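Example record

The entry below shows one chain as it appears in the dataset: sequence first, then structure tokens.
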Amino acid sequence: MGSYPIWFGPNSRPLFGWFHHPNDDRARAGVVLCAPFAREYVEAHYAMRLLAERLESLGLCALRFDYDGIGDSAGDSNDSDRVSAWLASTARAVALVRSTGVNQVTVVGMRLGALLGAQAAAEGGGVDQLVLWDPCVSGRSFLTEQRAIAAISFGTTGSSDGSVQGPGFLYGSETVRELSELAFSRFQVPLARRALVLIRPDRPAGKRLGASFASSIEWDKAVGQADLFEVEAPHQALPYTTIERIATWVSDGAQTCSVALKLPPVAGVATVDFDTVGQAVTERPIWMGPAGLFGVLTEVAGTEVASMERKCGPVVVFLNVANEHHVGPARLWVELARRWALAGITSVRVDLSGLGDSPRRYPDQLEFFARLPEAFQDLDDITSAVSPDEPKNVVIVGFSSGGYQAIDSALELLPKGIVAVNPSLSFVPPECRAGLPIDPRRKVALPQSAVVPRFRGSNLHSELLLRFPRLRWRLRTLPTRHARIHRLRLVVCNLGWRIRMLSAPSCRSGAWLSKLVDAGVDVLLVCGEHEARPIRAGASRRKLSNLVRSGRLRFECVPELEHGLLIDAQYRTVADLTTEHVVSRFAPRRNSTASSVTAESA
């Protein structure tokens, strides 16, 4: 069996994907996997990978891909004609699989991807089988659901311009209008020879799909969707039962004889962006270290100047967020990598072992799990690979769990700089969950007891917090009747942090920040009010002031910052703040072009 990354579609706006195929380069049929959108896109990424790997083990080839402006593909979610571009992306994916020489093509779509896949089948024809995995009945129902989730989780209200703020994605008014026109009820003829429709047991409304989109339809349950989408990272569970059901069904309906495949080329260098004067930003996949960790390298077009800059300036390393793949929160790493490249900064978005598109370092290593001890070795391999002459010549950027890992790894690596956004310093280490002692490489972690998570979901209050992960934050930040009560709440919370740090003085922020600053590491911390508390509780006001005055620590507290960075306005604030800092500290000083480009892109 084998899989590798590819670019496809127009050279001026390439789409990124992974092509899976059996070892003998023959397949009985081809499958196109249409991913969901927004938060569901990153939450389902690993499940789609597992499905593709299972299909290739059954003698089928499969393509999973990123739509235009999504994931690693070129473009931006704010571009015009979004729905048309997404439909065109799906059609190109189907055409690519068909060009390999297979006689049958199956489309598997999850959530909104099921609707787009069905629409592409209706417009292009030639789809033999169709799998609708927890499908959205219409684009309008999907937008209604996204608006409701954002309102409940973040307290966002409707927009007067017709746009819709969903978790991690802002749908412009044009996109809202185009999506609202898509619905299964509009399909008049069968789209495929046979179809499998998997409906969540707790959402029987999916039966409204009707029965006009295939000649033969089977209905079944989409088992595990709630555990995948409605549990806060990194506590989700992968839907192994449903993955096996889909793979077996598709394989049973495929032809028995295989054909030799015309394999698409392995991804090389592709141009993904331009600045206002035509300077190109390129990306290419790379593999790092003995474990073969996967990453996407972003840099300005390979000129002599670019090569010299890469040798002199540090390479930025973007880390995974929780158990998600390398695109960052709401695709922030992709945007920053391409913006910073225009200022002359080379970067790589990486998947740590057992996450995203990287393999596991050891056969028995946990997969789809954040903050593993193996991450320390991963960072050693990554920094040595991207900066072989001087492994310390890197800037490590992380968010939430990645922010923690950036800090903890930096204490040994001592890189040029770190950027930690909303670092999660308090958690249950995975080794402690397994009954093992805490890994000695953890220097800043504030371990929680493993007892509490075991009772997660054991009562009505816990069930509500699991179903609406941001409800806890909303309840804790409700405005109080008296400012005195609010101040008392903060005092109690900070006192709790201080008590927890008494038993581990080295975990106090004052200790590890001093070590980093004294070693010459440039540190940027961007925190919401909740995430700033352990930083303040672990260092006196004078200590923090002295560290800031050193010029190597910048501590930015944005009180209203929501932890997941899923609100567009807050996303933009963090993107601009980190860009200003990193470009001013680490961009090559060759001429005024970089600064003008950065100002225009910001």
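Notes for this example: Residues 129 and 250 are 7 Å apart (CA to CA). The chain has two domains: 2-138+182-260, 270-447+492-601.
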